[in-house]
Amino acid sequence: MSAREGRMEAALDFLYSREYKGRGVRERPRAGSLDPSQINIPTWLGEVRELFPRETVEIIEKHALDRYGLTELVTDKETLEKLEPNMELLKTLLTFRGHLQGEVLEAARRIIRQVVEELKKKLETEVRRALSGRLNKFRHSPQKAAQNFDWRDTIRRNLKHYDVKRRQIILQEPRFFARNTRVLPWQVILCVDQSGSMADSVIHSAVMAGILAGMPMVRVKIVVFDTSVVDLSEHVDDPVEVLMSVQLGGGTNIGAALTYCEGLIENPHRTVLALVSDFCEGVAPGVMLSACARMNEAGVKLIGLASLDQTASPIYDHAMAERLAEQGVHIAALTPKHFAEWLAKIIKSR
Fold first, then answer.
1. Does 205 lie in the same domain as 147?
2. Which domain range does residue 296 map to?
3. E strand map for the chain
4. pLDDT digit string (tens) for 22-62?
5. Environment class of 203 (CB within 10 Å of its CB; exposed 0-12, middle 13-18, buried 19+)
6. 167 and 316: one domain?
7. What is the DSSP string of 279-316?
8. This prediction's pTM
9. Confidence class for position 69, pLDDT limits 50, 70, 90
10. Is 18 a domain residue?
11. Among candidate residues 60, 81, 112, the one where a domain is terminated
């Protein structure tokens, strides 16, 4: 078999080998699980959606729900609440979101919010530090932030409060550096591919949009797409609502999405457009490439953020990425932290 055929066989065997349970035909396979240490259902779903036609994918997913033990995940609230909230569970819930109803849907929403808030806490400090400007060591600020602490001036100003008995300086007037900030407005448009293999990137994009929306003088829009385009900018400050509106799967029409985003641009010279995708265009690439060429000529800063897998390794169509680069798109595989640093450099350069 070819490498692709081997992947197809493995994907089918993961599900349909359960058919042989108890028949003595082969050893009972290890069942799929949401436990990160075992076979990963979201990864399996991504493989299925990449390797098989859409009609076949619908049949396989229906079999997974109705015949092979995944039904409880979308029908039983107690089962869902016993699972550990983590990224793997979040991706699985997003995949089967269309099947969630009633109390199960509300339980899923709570789990999604918990995981998103934990992820946001990890990213927000790094993103805000990258975008908040450089330390200004000639000016101090009343804003108290640990990363801006001026220990030299603090000691100097508090020496008069030295406690001889305890041999300690009593800090009554801590000092903090101010930061240089640019006040020119920027528009950041996140154009996010929501095909089945993009779950990790979709989640991080939603969280990043929420963080950026809280930054002063940055106007954020988020658009998701497959063969259709959905503008979720009204929910940009709430990553959970963005994710609950996403439907993972389907085809890909990058050209239509970029054309829509082009219409959102207010000031090209103060606009960053980030295409988050694996660049696997599902239609003729002419529309996509033309849209990039027009925006680049107008002065828009274009970046193509390649899809990252669970180990942060890039997965994308290299040939198409090269064609995008020829039209002025900066192609990169960046974590959210490094994207924020890149964005800061762009904003501070003007």
1. no
2. 186-348
3. 135-140, 162-163, 168-169, 177-179, 186-193, 218-225, 229-231, 271-277, 301-306, 330-332
4. 454 444 444 444 443 344 566 677 788 788 887 788 788 77
5. buried
6. no
7. ---SS-THHHHHHHHHHHHHT-EEEEEE-B-TTS-B--
8. 0.72
9. low
10. yes
11. 112
